[in-house]
Amino acid sequence: MRTWWHRLHRVTRDEGGLSLVEVLVAMLIFAMVSVGLAYSMIGTLNLTREARVRVVAANLAADEIDLARDTDDLFGLLDRTREITLNGDVFRVQRSTQWVSDPAADFSCGASGGGGTLRYKRVNVTVTWGGMRAGAAPVRSDTVLNPDDHINDPTKGTILVSVLRADGTGNPNVAITATPSTGSVISSTDAQGCTYILRVNPGSYTIRAQRTGHVSDAQTATPAQTVSVTPGTTASVGFQLDQAATFDAVLAPGAPVGTRVPTGTSMPVSMVSTYGIATPAPVGGGGTLTPRYSLHPFTSGYQPFAGSCLSSDPRAWPETVEGATTFRAELPEPVAAAPGTTVTMPVPMGLVQVSGGGSGTYLRAESVTPATTDPPTPTCASTVSYAYGSVVPAAGSTVVIALPYGTWRLLQGSSTSQTSQLNSTRVTPLVLPEPSVPQRITTTTAGVITVDPRTAVAP
Length: 459
Fold this sequence. Notes:
Elements: H1 4-13, H2 20-69, E1 80-86, E2 89-100, E3 120-129, E4 139-145, E5 157-164, E6 175-179, E7 194-200, E8 203-210, E9 214-216, E10 224-229, E11 234-243, E12 245-251, E13 269-273, E14 276-278, E15 292-295, E16 303-306, E17 320-322, E18 325-328, E19 342-347, E20 350-355, E21 362-367, E22 385-390, E23 398-403, E24 406-413, H3 419-424, E25 425-426, E26 430-431, E27 442-443, E28 448-451, E29 455-456
Parallel strand pairs: 5-11, 12-19
Antiparallel strand pairs: 1-2, 2-3, 3-4, 5-7, 6-8, 8-10, 9-11, 12-15, 13-14, 13-16, 17-18, 18-29, 20-23, 20-26, 21-22, 21-24, 24-25, 24-28, 27-28
Keywords: Membrane, Transmembrane, Transmembrane helix
Pfam family, one: N_methyl
Protein name: Prepilin-type N-terminal cleavage/methylation domain-containing protein
């Protein structure tokens, strides 16, 4: 077999030269060698750059640790992130801090129980940069700082305050006050949602948290807690406070235009969450079918029902079996909203059509104890009354009203201030819209209405 060298030697003696195929093969070989060399050079340059930027990142991390160690006030040493550009590379320096009672253990501000002491502050610094290789680890540097002065005065105490958002993260810039005054300046919460009240005289204090536009898990704008301080120890207080979400309720969804609800803010809407039941006052739309509520943005949301007594809660109605059909009452699907956003919340109610006529135009619904049933139908613990105002139309006309779940008696009179007249004449007749809402609403000629939330369960 003749090698390429022999062929080349023959070509040197033969003026015919190399063929096109041989030229192409030679060019391909040259390209492969060039690509390999270029790849090796690029890899070498990348490794060189990686080593260089890691050295710079390590220096930046060390500088951040030195700055932390030079801080006079460890309470002012907080989380922060900054970007630094050096030699065309952008470095991201992230510092996180946390008080600890032991270098190997976490210490969460406001943790329940109290009685611990603040001893050290742990500082963790992480440096990353643009164009990092996939899987490359950032540069880290850690330290634990020991305050020069005692944080806990042996004759006084410390109050740790923690304010968390609905998602469990810290809520910064929350104003904290104490009653009576502790005699020291109280800083707003830091990036971790923490603040510390130092050198507090022993005694009992009421701690309040407040931030504009925020609401607590108890649906209050300024939640408060009481804490006792003893000498030489740390007491803890925790709040859950977040930017309020707006819930636009729609009472009796699908109700015809002109449907009436109790006047003013007298028609309560109960909000069921994993934290219990709240009956907040509307921030707008009271006395209409579309009240608006400003609520804590629980991630699990709210399941609403109209009214506030036991019979209005669908969960209080026992499951029943009639023939081959099972009837069961359930709360609506939960509705959740992110902090600062607005969502629509349907609130089911019963609808009844009232014909005009009788004594007066003022209408009132009053809870009554239902007839004995098996299982028993829930009732209100005490009489509940809802005033609709002047809503009864002229004879021959009708108006539709919305009622919470439960058993009610409708009364009418010539004035809201004349109770005897309101109770003197029962409204008749009553008509149920088609289809009946809910499925099992019933009326009597005596003006008694049962709004039953139980619906047939599909087999």
